[in-house]
Design goal:
The radius of gyration is 14 Å and the shape is globular. The protein starts with 14 loop residues before the first strand and ends with a strand. Strand 5 and strand 6 form a beta hairpin. The relative contact order is 0.27. The chain is mainly β.
């Protein structure tokens, strides 16, 4: 986190993320970036992204948590929803790699 000229701490926006398969939650947490494959191609999601509803294409979802290593999951047959810094990925099949 940085500081503004008056010395106050700046708040860094985060994404609240949930990756859900048909039968279970695969991963949830706080992230600074998501990259997923849709039927239109790969999309990157950062805090402040416009609301979005996309159809998932078969492929990887890469989650960059606010702390720790990148989390990679395989997801297909579902959708991706973004609204108010909340990202929900619902897939017919999903697993961590």
């Amino acid at each position: 986190m940085g500081a503004d000229p008056e010395g106050e701490r700046l708040v860094v926006a985060e994404l609240t993320v949930s990756v859900v398969a048909a039968d279970r939650e695969v991963w949830s947490g706080v992230a600074k970036q998501i990259v997923a494959r849709t039927t239109e191609g790969e999309i990157g999601i950062l805090p402040g992204h416009e609301p979005l509803l996309g159809i998932l294409g078969a492929g990887e979802v890469r989650i960059t948590p606010t702390e720790g290593a990148v989390v990679t999951a395989r997801a297909e047959d579902g959708f991706l929803s973004v609204e108010n810094n909340t990202v929900t990925i619902v897939a017919g099949a999903a697993e961590l790699l």
